[in-house]
Amino acid sequence: MKPTGWQPVVHMPKYVAFLRAINVGGHVVKMDQLRRLFEEAGLTNVETFIASGNVIFDSKSKNTETLERKLEKTLEAALGYPVVTFVRSITEVQELAGYEPFTGAKSETETTFIGFLNKAPDNQTLGKLQSLATLDNFHAGGRELFWLCRTKISDSKLFGPLLEKTLGARTTLRNSNTVKRIAAKYS
């Protein structure tokens, strides 16, 4: 028999929002302000992870597309510029962190980046991307693009607008180490 007034503990799903245009290109946002904006949007247990636009939160919603649109509207209204938002469940982030599409040892100049996309690229798009990258390797998995960058990312001719134009999709990049650190924190 359950005690009077007993309520089961209901755990809401945990998500990570990967935001583009936070603390780059002159768009400076303090992390306490970012947390407050997420809380004002009705999200709970809001945390930020490094100051590059990674926000972890709980939500009753199970629809990541709805969360993305809601957050984009909230952030643009508050900050005065569009903030492209990519939401993944913590389970999806953990799966990404454990996935190694590129085998073999990496040199000190090689870095794996994960591009969060608003839609999965098709094979033709991936072929076009690979034809532009003479040194780099790419691998797609769902709405993510894995990029083995063999130079400094700022030296790559694919960094920035050309990447999105070639993909035909909005994206934001994170170093795979950042994704692994987020996954480890919530495992």
What distinguishing features does this structure have?
four-stranded antiparallel beta sheet, 2 domains, Alpha-Beta Plaits, 187 residues, alpha+beta, 8 strands, 6 helices, 33% helix
Describe the model:
- The structure is a single chain.
- The protein is of the alpha+beta class and 187 residues long.
- It folds into two domains: 81 residues, SP0830-like domains (Alpha-Beta Plaits, 2-Layer Sandwich); 78 residues, Alpha-Beta Plaits.
- Helices cover 33% and strands 24% of the residues.
- The protein has six helices and eight strands, in the order βαββαβαβαββαβα.
Summarize the structure.
The chain has helices at residues 31-40, 64-79, 90-98, 123-132, 161-167, 176-185, and strands spanning 14-19, 44-48, 54-58, 85-89, 111-117, 137-141, 144-149, 171-175. Helix content is 33%, strand content 24%.
Q: What topology emerges from the helices and strands here?
A:
Layout: E1 14-19, H1 31-40, E2 44-48, E3 54-58, H2 64-79, E4 85-89, H3 90-98, E5 111-117, H4 123-132, E6 137-141, E7 144-149, H5 161-167, E8 171-175, H6 176-185
Antiparallel strand pairs: 1-3, 1-4, 2-3, 5-7, 5-8, 6-7
Helix pairs in contact: 3-6
Alpha carbon gyration radius: 18 Å
In whole angstroms, how far apart are the ends? 33 Å
Query: How does the overall form come out from the CA principal axes?
Result: globular
CATH-defined architecture of the largest domain:
2-Layer Sandwich
* Rounded mean pLDDT score: 90
| Parts with pLDDT < 50 across at least 5 consecutive residues | none
Element order, helices and strands?
EHEEHEHEHEEHEH
Counting DSSP E segments of at least 2 residues, the number of strands comes to 8
**CATH superfamily heading of the largest domain:** SP0830-like domains
CATH class division of the largest domain: Alpha Beta
User: What structural class results from the helix and strand content?
Assistant: alpha+beta
CATH topology descriptor of the largest domain: Alpha-Beta Plaits
Number of domains: 2
Q: Level of helix content?
A: 25-40%
- Residue share in β-strands: 15-25%
**Number of discrete helical segments:** 6
Biggest sheet: strand arrangement:
2-3-1-4
- Largest sheet at a glance? 4 strands, antiparallel
